[in-house]
Amino acid sequence: MRRFFLIAIPYGWLLVLFLIPFVIVLKISLSDTELAIPPYTPTLDLSQGWSGIREFFAGLDLENFVWLTEDDLYWKAYLSSLWIATISTLLTLMIGYPMAYAMARSPEQWRTTLMMLVILPFWTSFLIRVYAWMGILSQEGFLNQFLLWIGVIDTPLTILNTNTAVYIGIVYTYLPFMILPIYAALDRLDGSLIEAAEDLGCSRLMAFWLVTLPLSRPGVIAGCFLVFIPALGEFVIPSLLGGSGTLMIGKVLWEEFFSNRDWPVASAVAVVLLLILVIPIVLFQRNQQKQQEAEQ
Amino acid sequence: MTRLSWFNVVSLTLGFAFLYLPMVILILFSFNESKLVTVWAGFSTKWYGELLQNEAFLDAAWVTLRVAVFSSTIATVLGTMAAYVLVRGGRFFGRTLFSGMIYAPLVMPEVITGLSLLLLFIGIGLDRGIFTIVLAHTTFSMCYVSVVVSSRLVTFDRSLEEAALDLGCSPAEAFRLVTLPIIAPAVISGWLLAFTLSLDDLVIASFTSGPSSTTLPIKIFSSVRLGVSPEINALSTLMIAIVAVGVIIASLATKRAALQRQREERLAVQT
C-alpha cells in the first residue's frame, strides 16, 4: 500500500502536469483558429455523446502544419535557429576545450577551486548574465569605448541587436555545460598513455591529436549536445541581444502566442520544434549510454 | 600531470576573464552616479536607495520568494519520492513512461513547457496566479531533484538498509534513520537547485502567471527590454551577492561535514 502511494503521487503529478498538457498542445495544433473563447475549434462536447466525439475528431486536420510550410517565416526561423545553435556550439567548444584541458593539467590542489569558478556563474541568474552583455555590447557600451580608446576602430561597431551578440550570449551562458563534461573525460585520462606516445616518438602535438583528443571524444559530444539542445529553443538571448532580423523559433512561438494570439499556430510551431529536437536528444542519450557501458 | 604550458595559462586566464568580467563591470556600474550607464561619473549608492523605494520591484521580489520556497519544497519531496521509486521501486506498470517523464522536462524547451501548462490551466479553468506558477515550477524542478537524488541513491550501500531491517527496524524507520541521513546532502543540493531554478525562471513564469502575480524575472525582463538601467544594475548586484554568499556558506558547510565524517571514520577504525 505504501509502495502504491510512493509511485502514484509523483507519477500522477507528472501525468497531469506534463503529459496531459502536451496532449492538449498536440490537439490544439490540429484545430482551427477562431475568434472565440477559447480561440480555437473544435472543442470536445461530451454532452452530445458519440456524435459529439465523432464531430470533434472530424474537426481536426493538419492545416496549421501546411501553413507552417507555406509561410516563409517559419521554415526560415527553424533553419536560422539550427544555424545559430550549431555555430554557437562550435564556438563554445573552441573556447571550452582549451579551458577544460588546462584545468585537467593544473595542479591537484587548484582543481576544486577552478571547478567552483566554472560552476559559480551557473548559480547566478541567467537573465542577469544575459543583461550584463547589453551594457557591454551597445553602441556607447564598454567594449566600443575600450576599442576606441586603444585605437583599433574609429567609429563604434554595431554589435548589440545582431546575430553576433546572440552568439556571444549563447557561448557565455552555456560555457560551463561544455567545460564540465570535457573536464570529466580529460580528468579520467591515464597520463601514462601520453607518456608512452611521447616515448614512442610522438611530438606533444601529435600525442594530443592521436591520444588525448580521441579519448576525450565522449565528453566533447556530451558537451556539444548540452549546449546545442537548449540553444535551439532559446528565447531570452535572441530577444534581449538579437535584433529584429534575428529569427529564432523560440521567439517566433512566443510572439505567435502573446502578440498574434494564434494558439493553434503556436502549438503547431511547438510540435515541430519538438520533432526536430528528438534527433539530438536520442543521439545524446546513446552517447551517454555508450559511455556508461564503457566504464563498466 | 605535467606543468602548465603558457598556452594553458593563457586559455585559463582569458576564459575566466570572459566568464567574470561582464559581471564585474555590471557590479561596478551599479555604483555609478550617472543615469547614463556607460559613463562613469563618480561613486554613489543612490540607485540602491531608489531600488528599495520601488514598490513594484519589492512586490515582485516577495512573489518570487514565495513561489521559490513553496515550489522547491514540494519539488524536493516529489523528486526524492520519484528517485526512490526509480532506483529501488523494481518493476511496475508504466515504469518506462515514468522515467521518460522524469527526463523529458530536462531537455524540453522552456517555451513549450510554458505553453503546454498554460493551455492546461485555461482548459480546466484555473485562474492564473501564484498557485499556477508554483505548480509549473514544481513540475520541472522535481525532475532535477530526482536526477540529483537518484545519482546518490545508486552509489549507496544497500547492505546498511538491510542491516537496519534485520535489526528490527520497520521499512519507514530504516528510511528515516539510515537512508535519509545518507542521502541528505543530495536532497539539500536538490532543494537548492530547485530554489535557484525557480528564482531564475522567466519563460515558464511568463506563461503561467496572472496580472497580479508578476515575478522578479518578469519585471526585470520587461524593464530591461527598454534598455540598460542603473536600477537594474543595482538589483543584479544584490542578487549576485546573495548567491555568492549562499554558495560560499554551502561549500564551507559541506567541507566541515566531510572533515567531521573523516574524523568519525578514523575513530570508528581505532576502536
Largest sheet of chain B: none
- Radius of gyration of chain A, rounded? 25 Å
Largest interface: A-B, 79 and 81 residues
Q: Portion of residues in helices of chain A?
A: over 70%
Number of strands of chain A: 2
What is the count of structural domains of chain B? 2
First-last Cα distance of chain B = 38 Å
Please explain how this structure is put together.
The complex is a heterodimer of chains A (296) and B (271). Chain A is globular, with a radius of gyration of 25 Å. Chain A is mostly helical and 296 residues long. Chain A has 14 helices and two strands; from the N terminus they run αββααααααααααααα. In chain A, helix 5 runs antiparallel to helix 8 and helix 9 runs antiparallel to helix 10. Chain A has one domain (65-295): MetI-like fold. The longest helix of chain A has 34 residues, at 72-105. Chain A has helices spanning 2-29, 50-58, 63-70, 72-105, 108-123, 126-137, 142-150, 163-188, 191-199, 204-215, 217-232, 236-241, 249-258, 263-295, and strands at 32-33, 40-41. A two-stranded antiparallel sheet of chain A has the order 1-2. With 271 residues, chain B is mainly alpha-helical. Chain B folds into two domains: 56-227, MetI-like (MetI-like fold, Orthogonal Bundle), CATH 1.10.3720.10; 230-271. Chain B contains eleven helices and no strands. The longest helix of chain B has 41 residues, at 230-270. At the A-B interface, helix 1, helix 4, helix 5, helix 6 and helix 11 of A face helix 1, helix 3, helix 4, helix 5 and helix 6 of B.
Task: Detail the topology: elements first, then pairings.
The complex is a heterodimer of chains A (296) and B (271).
Chain A: H1 2-29, E1 32-33, E2 40-41, H2 50-58, H3 63-70, H4 72-105, H5 108-123, H6 126-137, H7 142-150, H8 163-188, H9 191-199, H10 204-215, H11 217-232, H12 236-241, H13 249-258, H14 263-295
Antiparallel strand pairs in A: 1-2
Helix pairs in contact in A: 1-14, 3-14, 4-8, 4-11, 5-8, 6-8, 8-11, 9-10, 11-14, 13-14
Chain B: H1 6-30, H2 46-53, H3 55-88, H4 95-107, H5 110-123, H6 130-154, H7 158-166, H8 171-200, H9 203-208, H10 216-224, H11 230-270
